[in-house]
C-alpha cells in the first residue's frame, strides 16, 4: 500500500514525529491476537448474561415466565422489570437527558421491537443463551406505527428554522434556473466488527468495568449517576475497541453488566448479539429531503432551501440534522433550512458517523450537480462561483477554507479536465461509464479534556489521558503529538489511554477526539517542561504535570471552523442488469495538520468506502406487520465488499488555521461526506438518469434505464 | 444454542445408520449454512453426523463421457477441476460466483444442494414462516419480498433457493445419488426440490434419513460452450437477485442445442425448458432470445416489489446468449 501523497504544513517546526508515517503502537498485538477486547478479558468466577429483547413493537409486558428457565442447567437468575434494582433517571449529560433505553427493566412498557425485557444469567455463555431463547415473555400488544413519511401527521419542526421563508421564496421566484428535487436515504446502521460487550465486578467497594466504548470517563460518569454512586466509586476501562462510529457511548450492555454484578455479587459479562445491535446501539434514521436551488443563468446562487425529515423514537428525540449541511457551503442571497422529525415506534436513532452531514451532503451535493447540468456549467466551476466569504447563517469568517484547493488538486489527479460533460454517451462493452464529484465539509470542534504527562526517572515519559482508540490510531497519534511537544523521539513515550481514573476527557466523537486530546497532551507537556526547566533530577516516582484545557479552549477566536474536501468517483453501470460498480474514487481533503499520514489515509479511505456503501448498498428493511427488521444481520444488511472498492486514493492539501494553537482537525467523518453524492452524480453522468433514492440498487437502475435506451426506443 | 451430540461417521453405511437414528439428526458437511442456522436457533439438531471424512471426495469419469462428483467434494475443488472447467465451464463459474474463498474451501457439493433459503423471515425465529414453522404464515407476500420468487411460488412461500452451483447443475441435467438404510436411490436435480404448493417445509424429495453421496453430470457437448452470469447487489459475497446458466450450440446461424436455467427466481434452481423449446431450430439472435425468455416468463407471477426480475431475466437471457453466439462465431 502506498503511503500518503499529500503534504501538510502545520504550526510546529519540521523534523518532528507529527506528519511522518507510523504503524499503530498496538498493531502487532492486534494482528497476533494478544490484544484483548472487552468480551475476551478473563475473570475468575465470571457469570454470563444473555439479554432477551421484545418481539413486539408496542405494548406492555404482562408476564415473564422465569420458572422453567430457572430450572435449566447453569441458570443463576433472571432479571426483569419485576425484580430489577432501581436506577436513577433524572440526570443530564453531554448527550442530553437520561436515555430511557439505559433505564433497563424499570417499567413494563415496550416502545419498539428489540427493547430489553430480561437478562438471563448463567455459568456459561451457551447456557445463558439457550435459556434466553427459551424464556417466554407475554405481552399485551397495542397497534404500532413504524411507517416513516414526511407527511406523517405526528411530524414537527425540530428547532427553529434558519433563514426567512418569504425572502427565500422571493429569491426562488426571481431565479432564472431552479432545481426542486426530493431525495431519500434509508435507515442505516453503524455496526462495529466488535459487538458491544462489558464486564462488571465489585472490587474493594468500587465498581470496576471493562467495556467497549468511545469514552470511559463519560461511561463511568453515567454509571455513577444511574446507580447513585460517587464518581470515584466507578472505574471504566476500554483499552481496545473494534470500531465504534457513534454506536459506543453508554449502551445497555454496560448497565446490564453492572446491575447483574450488583445482584449476583460476582463478575458478570454481557455481550450483545449482532441482531440486538440493530435495536440497541443507535442507527441513522431514514431521511426525506427536499432541496430547492435558485440561480442566475451563470450558476450564481440566489436561493438555497433545504428541508429535511427524519424519524425518532416515541420516547426520545434525536434529530438527523441533514438540513444543516448547507449552512457554510455556499453564499446564496437567501437561505432557509429546517429539520423536521417524526416520532415512531422504533428505536432511537443516534450519532452515526457524520450525523446530518452524510445524508445532508447527499441531497445538497446532488442538487448542486443538477443545477450545474441545468446551467450548462462544470460542477466544480459552479461551486467556485458560489464560494462564500463568511458563513451564510453565522456571518462569521472562516478560520481556514481550502475547498477550492481540494477541487483543484483533486481534479488534476483525477483527470477531470478531460471529462465530456454529456451524460449517457460512454460505453465499454455492457457498461456505461461516468464520473462525478461533490464537496465535503465537517465541523472542526474541540472540547475540554484533562491529561497528565510524567517524566520518568529512566528518561522516558508517560502520557495518561482518558482518550479512546476506536481503531483509528488515536493512541499512536497522541504519542507522536507528545513526542513533538516534549521534543523527544516517539520511542520514549509510553501512552496510556481509556481508563476513567485518568480523569475527564472528550469522547471519541464528533471528529473532536484527537484534536481535543492533543490539546490537553500539549498543554500538559508544556507544563512538565516548565517544571523540568527548574532543574534538579527526576525523582524515582517521576515528575508529573497535569493540564485542563477548559480555559484555553474558551479563549479560541469565534470563527467558522471546518474541514473541507472534494470527492471524485468513476462508475460503470449495466442498465440491462442494474449493476453499478465503482471503478475508482479519489478524495482530497483540507483537514488541518495530518498527524500520522499512514492511519489518516486509512481513515479517509474508510470514510469514502462508507459513503460508497451508502450510495450503493446499505439499507435496513423494516417489516410493517411486526415493526421489526427483516434480515437484521450482516448477510441481510449489505456493506461494500472488497470487490466493490477496486481503486481508491485519498490525499490532502495544506490547511493552516493561524489562530489555532494545535492545528489538528478531526478526520474521522469527513471522508464520508459527499462520497455518496459523487457516486450518484457519476451514475447520472453514466446513464443520463438521476437517482435520488439511496441505495442505488439494481432494481432501481433496471427500472429507470438510461437516456441512451430511451433515445433508442424513441427512434 | 441447545446441546447436541457430534459423531464422525466412519463409512456411508455408518452415516446412514446415524442419520436414521432420529428426526433431529443432521449431516454436517462444511457447516457453512447449518452452523449459522444453529446459532440463529433455526436448526436445533440433537445429533450432528460429520460426513466430511467419508470417501466421497472424488471427481471421476462416469464411463459414459460424463462426470461423477462425490458429495464431500468441496466447492473450491469442484470449481478448480480441469475437466469441470473444460466440459462444464458454467458450473465452475457458478461455484466461483458464490460465497467467498474461505467458505468455498469448507462448503461441500452435497451441502450446497441442501442449503436453506436466506429469506429474512426464515432466518429470524421471532417471525412467522411456513418453511420453518409450518402453518405460521408467509409474511413475505405482504412484506419484504424484493428478492422473492416469480416462478413456481405459492401464497404459502415466496422464498428463493440460494445456490449458484445448483443452477448450473439444473441446466446440465445432473442426477443426485443418495443412500438410505433401505438402499441407494437417485433423483434428477429437477425432482430433488418438490413444488412449493401448500407444504413449503418439505424442501426435498429425499427419503427421511437419506444421505446424498454424489451426483452425476451426463455427457453434454453443448455444456462446453456455456456461461454463468450472476446479478447481485454488490460485487461479491452476496446471493443472486437473478442469475442464468446458459449453454448454446449454434450451427449455421441456427440454434442446434441450448440449455437454460434461472437462479433466484424460484424455490429451486429453475430449468427453463419452455425457453429451450422455443429456441431450438430458431435463428440465433436477440429477437429469438427475447421471445424464448418471454415464453418461460409467461408463467411468472410478480409481487409488488419483485417485478423487476422479469426484466432482469429477459435481459440476462438476451445478453448471455448474445455473448455465446458472438463467441461461437469467432
UniProtKB/TrEMBL annotation, chain A:
Gene3D superfamilies: Aldehyde oxidase/xanthine dehydrogenase, a/b hammerhead, Aldehyde oxidase/xanthine dehydrogenase, molybdopterin binding domain. PANTHER family: ALDEHYDE OXIDASE 1-RELATED (PTHR11908:SF132), XANTHINE DEHYDROGENASE (PTHR11908). Pfam families: Ald_Xan_dh_C (PF01315), MoCoBD_1 (PF02738), MoCoBD_2 (PF20256). Keywords: Molybdenum, Oxidoreductase. The keyword Endoplasmic reticulum does not apply. Residues 32-143 form the Aldehyde oxidase/xanthine dehydrogenase a/b hammerhead domain. Signal peptide: none annotated. This is Xanthine dehydrogenase family protein molybdopterin-binding subunit. SUPFAM superfamilies: CO dehydrogenase molybdoprotein N-domain-like (SSF54665), Molybdenum cofactor-binding domain (SSF56003). Residues 1-21 are annotated as: Disordered.
TrEMBL record, chain B:
The keyword Oxidoreductase applies. It holds the Pfam family FAD_binding_5. Keywords: Oxidoreductase. Residues 1-222 form the FAD-binding PCMH-type domain. InterPro entries: CO_DH_flav_C, CO_DH_flav_C_dom_sf, Diverse_Substr_Oxidored, FAD-bd_PCMH, FAD-bd_PCMH-like_sf, FAD-bd_PCMH_sub1, FAD-bd_PCMH_sub2, Mopterin_DH_FAD-bd. Signal peptide: none annotated. The keyword Oxidoreductase applies. This is Xanthine dehydrogenase family protein subunit M.
Amino acid at each position: 500500500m502506498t503511503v500518503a501523497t499529500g503534504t501538510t504544513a502545520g504550526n510546529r517546526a519540521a523534523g518532528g514525529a507529527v506528519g511522518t508515517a507510523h504503524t499503530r503502537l498496538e498493531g502487532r498485538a492486534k494482528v497476533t491476537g494478544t490484544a484483548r477486547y472487552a468480551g475476551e478479558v478473563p475473570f475468575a468466577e465470571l457469570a454470563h448474561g444473555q439479554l432477551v429483547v421484545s418481539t413486539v413493537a408496542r405494548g406492555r409486558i404482562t408476564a415473564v415466565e422465569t420458572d422453567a428457565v430457572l430450572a435449566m442447567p447453569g441458570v443463576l437468575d433472571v432479571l426483569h422489570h419485576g425484580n430489577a434494582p432501581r436506577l436513577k433517571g433524572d440526570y443530564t449529560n453531554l448527550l442530553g437527558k437520561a436515555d430511557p433505553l439505559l433505564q433497563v427493566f424499570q417499567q413494563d412498557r415496550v416502545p419498539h421491537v428489540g427493547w430489553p425485557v430480561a437478562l438471563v444469567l448463567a455459568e456459561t455463555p451457551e447456557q445463558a443463551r439457550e435459556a434466553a431463547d427459551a424464556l417466554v415473555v407475554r405481552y399485551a400488544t397495542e397497534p404500532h406505527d413504524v411507517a416513516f413519511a414526511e407527511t406523517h401527521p405526528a411530524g414537527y419542526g425540530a428547532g427553529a428554522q434558519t433563514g426567512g421563508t418569504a425572502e427565500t421564496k422571493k429569491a426562488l421566484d426571481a431565479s432564472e434556473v431552479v432545481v426542486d428535487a426530493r431525495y431519500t436515504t434509508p435507515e442505516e446502521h453503524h455496526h462495529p466488527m466488535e459487538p458491544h460487550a462489558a464486564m462488571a465486578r465489585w472490587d474493594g467497594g468500587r465498581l470496576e468495568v471493562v467495556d467497549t466504548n468511545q469514552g470511559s470517563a463519560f461511561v463511568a460518569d453515567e454509571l455513577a449517576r444511574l446507580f447513585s454512586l460517587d464518581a470515584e466509586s466507578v472505574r471504566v476501562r476500554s483499552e481496545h475497541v473494534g470500531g465504534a462510529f457513534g454506536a459506543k457511548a453508554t449502551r445497555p450492555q454496560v448497565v446490564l453488566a453492572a446491575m447483574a454484578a450488583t445482584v449476583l455479587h460476582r463478575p458478570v459479562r454481557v455481550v450483545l448479539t449482532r441482531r440486538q445491535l440493530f435495536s440497541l446501539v443507535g442507527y441513522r434514521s431514514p431521511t426525506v429531503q427536499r432541496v430547492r436551488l435558485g440561480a442566475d443563468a451563470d450558476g450564481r446562487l440566489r436561493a438555497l432551501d433545504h428541508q429535511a425529515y427524519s424519524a425518532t423514537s416515541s420516547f426520545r428525540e434525536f434529530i438527523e440534522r441533514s438540513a444543516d449541511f448547507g449552512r457554510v457551503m455556499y453564499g446564496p442571497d437567501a437561505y432557509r433550512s429546517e429539520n423536521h422529525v417524526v416520532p415512531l415506534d422504533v428505536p432511537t436513532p443516534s450519532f452515526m458517523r457524520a450525523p446530518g452531514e452524510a445524508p445532508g451532503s447527499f441531497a445538497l451535493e446532488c442538487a448542486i450537480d443538477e443545477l450545474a447540468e441545468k446551467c450548462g456549467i462544470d460542477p466544480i466551476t459552479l461551486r467556485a462561483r458560489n464560494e462564500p466569504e463568511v458563513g451564510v447563517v453565522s456571518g462569521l469568517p472562516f478560520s481556514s477554507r481550502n475547498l477550492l484547493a481540494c477541487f483543484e488538486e483533486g481534479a488534476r489527479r483525477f483527470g477531470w479536465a478531460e471529462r465530456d460533460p454529456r451524460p449517457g454517451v460512454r460505453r465499454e462493452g455492457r457498461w456505461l461509464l461516468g464520473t462525478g464529484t461533490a464537496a465535503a465539509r465537517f465541523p472542526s470542534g474541540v472540547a475540554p479534556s484533562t491529561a497528565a504527562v510524567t517524566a520518568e526517572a529512566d528518561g522516558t515519559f508517560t502520557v495518561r489521558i482518558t482518550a479512546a482508540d476506536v481503531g483509528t490510531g488515536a493512541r499512536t497519534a497522541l504519542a507522536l503529538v507528545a513526542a513533538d511537544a516534549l521534543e523527544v523521539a516517539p520511542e520514549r513515550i509510553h501512552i496510556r489511554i481509556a481508563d476513567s481514573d485518568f480523569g475527564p476527557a472528550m469522547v471519541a466523537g464528533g471528529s473532536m477526539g484527537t484534536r481535543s486530546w492533543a490539546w490537553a497532551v500539549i498543554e500538559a507537556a508544556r507544563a512538565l517542561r516548565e517544571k523540568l526547566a527548574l532543574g534538579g533530577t527526576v525523582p524515582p516516582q517521576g515528575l508529573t504535570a497535569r493540564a485542563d484545557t477548559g480555559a484555553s479552549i474558551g479563549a479560541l477566536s469565534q470563527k467558522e471552523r471546518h474541514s473541507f474536501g472534494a470527492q471524485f468517483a468513476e462508475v460503470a453501470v449495466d442498465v440491462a442488469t442494474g449493476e453499478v460498480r465503482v471503478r475508482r474514487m479519489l478524495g482530497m481533503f483540507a483537514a488541518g495538520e495530518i498527524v500520522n499520514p499512514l492511519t489518516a489515509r486509512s481513515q479517509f479511505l474508510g470514510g469514502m468506502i462508507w459513503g460508497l456503501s451508502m450510495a450503493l448498498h446499505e439499507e435496513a428493511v423494516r417489516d410493517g406487520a411486526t415493526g421489526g427488521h427483516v434480515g437484521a444481520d450482516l448477510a441481510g444488511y449489505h456493506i461494500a465488499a472488497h470487490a466493490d472498492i477496486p481503486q481508491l486514493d485519498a490525499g490532502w492539501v495544506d490547511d493552516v488555521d493561524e489562530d489555532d494553537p494545535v492545528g489538528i482537525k478531526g478526520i474521522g467523518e469527513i471522508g464520508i461526506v459527499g462520497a455518496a453524492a459523487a457516486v450518484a452524480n457519476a451514475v447520472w453522468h453514466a446513464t443520463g438518469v438521476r437517482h435520488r433514492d439511496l441505495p442505488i440498487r439494481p432494481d432501481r437502475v433496471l427500472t429507470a434505464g438510461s437516456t441512451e435506451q430511451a433515445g433508442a426506443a424513441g427512434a | 444454542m441447545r446441546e447436541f451430540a457430534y459423531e464422525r461417521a466412519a463409512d456411508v453405511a455408518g452415516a446412514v445408520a446415524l442419520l436414521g437414528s432420529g428426526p433431529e439428526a443432521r449431516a454436517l458437511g462444511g457447516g457453512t449454512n447449518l452452523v449459522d442456522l444453529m446459532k440463529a436457533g433455526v436448526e436445533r439438531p440433537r445429533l450432528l453426523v460429520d460426513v466430511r471424512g467419508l470417501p466421497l471426495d472424488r471427481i471421476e469419469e462416469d464411463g459414459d463421457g460424463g462426470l461423477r462428483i462425490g458429495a464431500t467434494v468441496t466447492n473450491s475443488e469442484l470449481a478448480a477441476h480441469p475437466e469441470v472447467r473444460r466440459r462444464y465451464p458454467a458450473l465452475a463459474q457458478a461455484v466461483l460466483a458464490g460465497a467467498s474463498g474461505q467458505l468455498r474451501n469448507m462448503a461441500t457439493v452435497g451441502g450446497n444442494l441442501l442449503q436453506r433459503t436466506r429469506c429474512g423471515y426464515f432466518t429470524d425465529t421471532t417471525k412467522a414462516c411456513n418453511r420453518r414453522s409450518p402453518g405460521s404464515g408467509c409474511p413475505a407476500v405482504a412484506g419484504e419480498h424484493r428478492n422473492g420468487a416469480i416462478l413456481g411460488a405459492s401464497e404459502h412461500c415466496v422464498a428463493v433457493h440460494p445456490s449458484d452451483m445448483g443452477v448450473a447443475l439444473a441446466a446440465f441435467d445432473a442426477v443426485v445419488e443418495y443412500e438410505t438404510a433401505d438402499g441407494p436411490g437417485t433423483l434428477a436435480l429437477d425432482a430433488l426440490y418438490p413444488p412449493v404448493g401448500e407444504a413449503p417445509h418439505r424442501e426435498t424429495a429425499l427419503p427421511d434419513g437419506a444421505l446424498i453421496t454424489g451426483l452425476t453430470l451426463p455427457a453434454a457437448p453443448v455444456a462446453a460452450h456455456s456461461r454463468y452470469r450472476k446479478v447481485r447487489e454488490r460485487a461479491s459475497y452476496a446471493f443472486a437477485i437473478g442469475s442464468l446458466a446458459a449453454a448454446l450450440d449454434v450451427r449455421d446461424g441456427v440454434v442446434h442445442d441450448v440449455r437454460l436455467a434461472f437462479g433466484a427466481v424460484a424455490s429451486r434452481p429453475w430449468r427453463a425448458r419452455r425457453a429451450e423449446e422455443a429456441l431450438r431450430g430458431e435463428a440465433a439472435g436477440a429477437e429469438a432470445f427475447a421471445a424464448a425468455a418471454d415464453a418461460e416468463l409467461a408463467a411468472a407471477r410478480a409481487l409488488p416489489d419483485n417485478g423487476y426480475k422479469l426484466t432482469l431475466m429477459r435481459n440476462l437471457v438476451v445478453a448471455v446468449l448474445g455473448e455465446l453466439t458472438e463467441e461461437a462465431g469467432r
